[in-house]
Design a protein that fits this description.
By secondary structure, the protein is α+β, with helices and mostly antiparallel strands. It has a single domain, classed as Alpha-Beta Plaits (2-Layer Sandwich), CATH 3.30.70.60. Helix content is 28%, strand content 48%. The strands form 2 sheets. The protein has a 4-stranded antiparallel sheet, with helices on one face. A two-stranded antiparallel ribbon has the order 5-6. The longest helix has 14 residues. The chain is globular, with a radius of gyration of 15 Å. The two termini are 27 Å apart. About 8% of the residues have low confidence.
């Protein structure tokens, strides 16, 4: 099956963002996902209280992965108590071409990665 580009965006409890990021990166490595980019954490007020929290840290990580491993990843992320909410999205319309076992990025993919930098 072909790898896809995914985005995980999460709300972490106040002052727990870096800890959550480390756990997520560890999970991505465990499932053999390839990191593309981390967006720096931002502290923000929540629109409504979640588990009695009124503010949290918002983070986003972009990565490559095989679709069949995403459900397992979601189940592991749900177990991280410092995460208030999260969503994993597929970045559609981007394909990865393989030539001689190496990965060559398409122009659309390269544009997205440059946009994220």
């Amino acid at each position: 099956m072909e790898r896809k580009i995914y985005e995980i965006t999460f709300w972490a409890r106040q002052n727990k963002g870096e800890q959550v990021e480390e756990k997520l990166l560890s999970l991505l490595e465990k499932f053999n996902f390839e990191l593309i980019k981390k967006i720096p954490l931002k502290t923000k007020e929540l629109a409504y209280p979640i588990d009695k929290e009124t503010s949290g840290e918002l983070g986003t990580i972009y990565f490559y992965g095989l679709p069949e491993k995403i459900e397992e990843l979601k189940n592991k992320v749900k177990q991280i108590k410092e995460i208030l909410r999260f969503i994993i999205l597929v970045r559609r319309g981007l394909k990865i071409e393989k030539i001689n076992g190496g990965v060559i990025k398409t122009s659309q993919e390269a544009n997205l990665i440059n946009e994220l930098k």
